[in-house]
Amino acid sequence: MPDAAPGSDTTILALHGISKSYGHLAVLRQVTLAIDKGEVVCIIGPSGAGKSTLLRCVNHLDSVDSGTISFEGRPVYRYPLAGRMVTDPDRRIEEVRARIGMVFQSFNLFPHLTALGNIVEAPIHVLRERPDAALARGRDLLAKVGLREKENAYPHQLSGGQQQRVAIARALAMNPKLMLFDEATSALDPELVGEVLRVMRQLAAEGMTMLVVTHEMDFARDVADRVVFMADGIIVEEGPPGAIFSAPANPRTRQFLQNVLDRSGRLQANG
Amino acid sequence: MSFSLHEMISFLPTLLAGARITITVSIVSYVLALIVGLAFGIARIIRFWPVRIIAAAYVQFIRGTPLLLQLFFIYYVLPYTGLVIAPFPSGVLGLTINYSAYMAEVFRSGIQAIPHGQWQAARSLGMSRRLLMRRIILPQAIRIVLPAIGNFFVSIFKDSALVSIIAMRDLMFRGELLASATFKYFEIFTMVAIIYFIISYPTAKLVEYIEVKLNVSDQHMQGPLGHV
Ligand SMILES: Nc1ncnc2c1ncn2[C@@H]1O[C@H](COP(=O)(O)OP(=O)(O)OP(=O)(O)O)[C@@H](O)[C@H]1O
Ligand SMILES: [Mg+2]
User: What is the pTM of this model?
Assistant: First the structure.
């Protein structure tokens, strides 16, 4: 694991001891994780481990109860300053969010806007780009995700895989410094998974910094610089994919990987 | 019972003048109620809780009391506090307040029907609350509530008859006045009913037509991502 202390200039995101509970349920417990610029980190782990919650805390769709988050070398959202806790104004939080792209399991495209409309909405209204410039870039991004001819299609006219690729293009249109993926392919029919993973692989190859929650173990093995295994709100184990997949140190990691491999083996046998 | 076409025609100008007031008071009240209702609908889900409480109290109180009583209060009770309002603005005020409370509920439910994922996606793109409400949530919510909002347009014409009791010279008021002066209750109230119907039936049809048109062009709203 790269030695990335919060604030070092290669670190883009640093989570320091973040905890989060829903009522009595501790969903995140003292999670510490740093991500370098250009790094691809995959988070794996059983359902309920807190993976989605962790991602939502990174762009403050959820707030942490304690611990600090630093983005691009600065503490963000809520942090101690001069001995007391301060909360960033909405404006500042929105600026940080605008620099972090997020892709959801359920796509969440805006159904009243076309593919291109989805992509240019935030560049025009949040970044205040000139509409013609935003549209030109939006078309480039559609071409990049292989949907050049779909700019006028509404989300309901697109397959799940196409919708998710538009959603990725929508996030990229903001020129994010970090991309979050929360099980981007879990809601897709098996035959549509490949086209989305291809786009994600390409993005990784281009040097995008990515934090990816996934159940696609092949993707994690091939693309990740580092794999993080989470269970019950803690990071149980992390390391390069080679180490995690071939020689997991922790019995829980072993157990989890065994289950996943069994399941995918069964799927292949049945399919 | 004598039945004179000639007589009925002689009532017509008076009744039509009343109909004009009925239409005016209905349209003005409706438009105002739309604006006020939208404002209260949004106020009910705003983050700042005192605004939420006030909006909820307004909506519940207005919906929990009869329109007739609200009109009485504006026209007969407010003058005791030194506030005298003429019949026409009183009627508009009463209808606006009453309808805005119902519309606020409809707008609120429409806004809350938008899947959570839409808010999350918009916020993850750095949109402010105001921007995501205006550009993402409201355009979808308004399509959802359109049938309900359209039906209010039909019912406000009929409910506006109540303003006759605060001396507004609308269709109902003129009908009553004519009837009690001539004792031609049958002829006059039949004419009043027909005029109301002539106004409200095409309105209902128009609302229906707009609904169908919007439903057809908005099939995409029922796409696969309506749920999260
Ligand atoms: N808004 C919420 N209110 C209450 N509990 C919640 C909420 N969101 C998540 N939880 C709970 O927190 C725990 C962690 O949820 P989270 O979605 O982060 O898990 P996950 O690791 O992403 O799981 P999955 O693989 O199923 O997506 C779960 O037990 C979940 O039920
Ligand atoms: Mg999850």
Answer: 0.88
